[in-house]
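Q: Structure tokens for this one, please.
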Amino acid sequence: MTDNGNRLPLEPLRPAYRIQYFTDEELDKLQAATLDILENIGVKFMTDKALDVFSSHGASVDKKTQIVKMKPDLVFKAMKTVPRFFTMAARIPEYDLHLEEGTTYFTTDGCGVEVVDIGTDKPRMSTKADVGMMARIADYLPSVGFYWPMVSAQDFGRASPLHELEVGWNNTVKHFQSETIMGGVEARYAVEMATIVAGSRENLRKRPPMSSLICTISPLMQDKPGIEAAMVFAEAGIPVGFLAMPTLGTTAPVTQAGALAMGDAEIISATVLMQLMFPGCPIYHSMMQAWADMRTGGYVSYPRDARGRYGVVDMAHHWGMSSLGACYGTDSKVTGTWQQAAETALDPFLAGLASPEIVTGMGLSRTYTRLFPEQIILDDDLYQRARAYLQKMEVDDHSLALESIRNVGPGGHFLGQKHTREHMRTSLVRGITHHLDPQNKYRDPIEVAREKVKWILENHQPEPLEPAQQIEFNRILAAAEKELAEVYS
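A: Here is the predicted structure, written as tokens:
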């Protein structure tokens, strides 16, 4: 985040315009469908602790099937304690994300398993070093408000999510969000690491430097390790998001509205549990629909009609929750293709119009599994284009340039005008497609992106953890590796 010795401030989307995908009547109907599912069909919770909590609060619990049914009164009572906004803190306060209406922060995508190094064309297994490399790049880019581990530290086995935390915090001062820490044991070690960064448990509650994203299981199930991790994080005051990923036609109804209602029931049921246990704990809402190719059974992230990606933001806000939206995430197997552009070009613009508080998705190909380091620069360019489109255009006496127009008159040119000299350096904002070579010809954008990645890695070094913090991290990682080896042996 430094450029010529100066820190680059974050550049979130603050759109001058807003759209609502669903009418209020439609949102009420979707919410009624969610409540119907929760009351009459139920959601499966595969942990006794969750079943006991629901039972003690009057929900209908079948211990044999592990299915929980809850009446609307219980749902609404719990949902009233969900904070609409909260803080996702950074290691340095100036990069804290104070979630608020009309501001959208983006992050990278995760958690891929392959890396294609610059200058090669063959994928390899991702490592902890790759997590750190991409954290440094994300730390530099003003478009990235917080960091997801883009790939997994596969060289560290069961403890890999904790190693991702360690190498991430050593390579970015920004907020860290994990989508891979699952299980109560792993979560307790993560809370211990976050406490060291925050300085104390009290500070951790005020300014949590990490958050968690927990996936539900469609249709209508909660993952046991995921819910157990969520309980630990919520108790510590660490923000938790629940992400439903219904696949239309296989794990969800084939219609978008049906998939949205079912996925929403998964998210809300988990949110209710957290609020019953820890009223007021920060929880956010997320849903990322996918589609089944009914001829092949293949998984498709971006068909031609992907409105469900953005309508879900309205649903979250209708519940009074912050939303994690989904962008980018192309199905293209390589970077720089027409398919990649077609599937991602509209995303940051449409997401900005929907106005979720946070958005994931920058930088991966092959349906979120393959990392080309240069792709995050291409996605950053799309982000900056969307940010410009969404800003209000200045129309005032100076920008109207009437004096300059009078001076030139019909048939002249504006190169000699004072107004032109004042604005000529800022009039054309060069995207990645308009970088010039020594002969003043436009360069290949992919080559420009690769050079930018190399420049960042050579010139940008975020502040690492303090030595005392690193010593504590090493102790925690050693203890975690030992305990996890015993637990999973």
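A few notes: The chain has a mean pLDDT of 93. The domain at 9-21+80-390 is CATH 3.20.20.480 (TIM Barrel).
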